Structure formats: structure tokens, C-alpha cells
Description:
It is built from 14 helices and 18 strands. It is α/β, with parallel strands linked by helices. Strands 1, 2, 3, 4, 5, 15, 16, 17 and 18 form a nine-stranded mixed β-sheet that branches. Helix 3 links the parallel strand 9 (126-127) and strand 10. The site of zinc ion has 5 residues, from loops.
Amino acid sequence: MKVETLTVDLVVKNGRLVYPRGVVDGGIAIDGGVIVTVAKTPNLPDADVVIDAGGKTVLPGVLDGHPHTSSPPEDPSTGTMAAAHGGITTILDMPGIQVGVFSPDQFEKKRELYESTSYVDFALHGACASGYPEGTLTGMWELGATGVKFFISSAGPGWPQTFDGEVLERFRELASVDGLALIHAENDQILRDNLKRLRDAGRRDYAAHLEWRPPIAEIESGRRVIYYLKEAGARGLIVHTSLPETVWNARRASLEGATIHIETCPQYLYLTEEDVKRRGPWVKFAPPARSRETVAEMWRLLQGGWIDTVASDHAPYSREAKEAGLEDMLAAPNGIPGLETILPLMLTGVNEGRLSIERLAAVMSENPARIYGIYPRKGALLPGSDGDIVIVDMKKRKRIRNDELLTACGWSPYEGLEVTGAPVHTVIRGDIVLEEGEVVGREGLGTFIRRLSP
Ligand SMILES: [Zn+2]
């Protein structure tokens, strides 16, 4: 009798598999795009392709819940290629104005565009702008949107501003489908008044950016948003949180039965007000970088489980656009690229003892997958999950170099910074996308990840 041995598509052996609740030695077998086995290396099946991790760390697929990959000079192809280069396996793309996601119709167009261009798997967040009829957000939610982005302050030209009454109404609409609101929380009136005062005083210096957007504007707006979410019964995630006060306010509301999640970004863990004063537009983003003490506290809140997730807020403005801020800081756009640096920076945080590798797997894989309703398809090294893995070399030291980046903007606020820890191989649904740090995947390999729940 002939015994058929099972041969799977791909096996990763000799890894340190990271779970939010512990690290175990072993490997993963992937077949038909899905994880079929997690086992000690000797017990893994034969495979067409075998990757020997050689004792390196194996993370579940890494998510970025907040890149803007169609913001010029980026397009979906360069933006998602940068994501692949950064070791990201799934992006949850944030709306911009170039590829609008203000209606179900636009949502479908964006999905089609990314299906033909994306290097990595993608989910899409919709956007709430003023003037769209009731049912617009519900329509996008039903098409599988993973969240709906709101601005409490002005989003800028091309994005009709929603004021408090409309925000509250749209939170109620989302609550009716158990939707998730993603909120940029800064107090609009404080920002407007500060900007006028600074302009009237002829301020063009780098510190003007910090005075424009002080902590009180973020704290007050965050509190108000939390109050509206509670009132509406809607789930919310406050994006790019820079301050511990907002984290505590969200946690307090959670104790009272609300569901409020907190996202922060590497720029609130690595950059400070001193950097803004010294380097101006290259570290200009909103909310702005905060004090050294605040940054230290944000790390503690991240490690302690009080902050749910870390995302890039990749906003790849061109050098030319940013250079406007060298003469007049207030004139430069707010935003920095981050897709290719987020994982190395967070791995550096692990190496420096500020974050455990288990917490990293929680805040960059499992938590965002759960919050956005795509767990356990994404964010888990478990049988039945998509065959997404990220092998990282925790010891690899390198300097971040502008000329090594694939983002179309071609610069990084971290140029010259030494990081320790880098993604070396990634696999998306069984396909190798990053090999020895080089992108070997292709346009259109990425697939649309529809929200599974609720
Ligand atoms: Zn953003």
C-alpha cells in the first residue's frame, strides 16, 4: 500500500512564534493561503517551499490601521509597496481627498482601484463629511468598511467640515449598525483662534506649530468626543493620541460601559517638542509632538495595556511641500511618512526594554484586527487564519536612510536614526512578499479584506 504524505505550500520552521500571551518555539504550515498547522519544527509537514527562520522571531501579520497610501506624491501602488517594504502585511487605509471615500459608490471605486494595485492585503475605512444624506455611513459599513473617519477640527480643503450636531447624528447612525467611528480630536475653535493670533503676530518660527495646537485642544476635544460616543451608544477609536490625559479619559469611559479605543503613533513615542523646534517642517504633524515626559508616559501606557494600538498615520507629503515650512512653519502641511519605519521603530522599543515583544504583537496585530473586526482572519498565528507572517531579525542594526525608502515622497523624519530590529521576510496568504528585506511581491497581490464582524 502506498502512503500519501501531505505536502503543504509553505512551511516556516525554527521560529520563535510570538503571541500576545507568550512566545513558543516552532513553526507554521500554510496551505491554500491559510495556516493549517502550528507545531514544533520536527512535527511540521513537508512543503513545496521551506523558510528556515533560524531561531528568528516570527510575528503574526502586522497591520497598519492608519496609513494614507493615496496621498500625493504617493499612489496606491507606491504606498502599498512601501507598506510591504516596512513589513506590513495588511493596511487599513485612511480616507484622503484624492481618492475620496465619502459614499458607498466611492468606497467601491477605491476598493476596485486597490484590488488592481495593492502589494499588501487591504481594508478600507470610510469618511464622514458634511452634507451627505442619512444612510451614507451605513452603506459603507455594509460594504465592509472597517471604520468611519471623523474630524472634530477642520480636515482642510476638499473635506466638508462636520460640526458637533452633525457629528453626534452620524455617531447615532453608526451606533445603529454597531459601527466604529475613528476620530481626529482637536478643538476647532482653539486652533482657529490660535492660528489667527500667531499669523497676526507674524509668527513663522518652528515653535509656532506647538503654540497653534496645544495639549488643551486635544484633551478637551477628546473628552467631548468620548461624551458624544457615550451619548450615541457608538464605538469609537481616537486616532493618533499624543497625550496620557486622553488615554485616561477613554479608560474611565470604558469603565462606565462605553467602548473607546486608543491609537497612538511612533511619532508620539520617538519625537518631542525639542525636535519640532530644531527640525521644523520635517517633524510637523497634528497633533504635534509633545514633551519628553509625555513621551515617556506614553511608552508606559502602551506597555501597560492602556493604549490599544500603534499605527503610522503615514502622510507622505513631498519634500517641496514640506520645504515651505522652512521659511514659514505654519505654511507646511501636517504629516510625515511612516509605513517603512513603524515596525523597525517599535522593534527598537522592544530591544530597549520599553515594550515587550508580546505587547508588540498585541498592539500591531491582534488588537487592531479585533478592533476593526477582521480577527481572527488577520492578526493571529492560528490554524484557520490567513497565512500571514512577519519574520523579524531582532539583532539587525541599521540607520534609516532616505535613499533606501520606497515611499514616493523619498524622505523620513527619522533619517540617520539607528534602529535595532527589522523585518526580513513576510508572507501574505502563503505568498512571499518580502525576502531578505527586499520586496518580491507584486502589484495586485493584495486582496480586499472585508470586515467580518460585528
Ligand atoms: Zn491620518
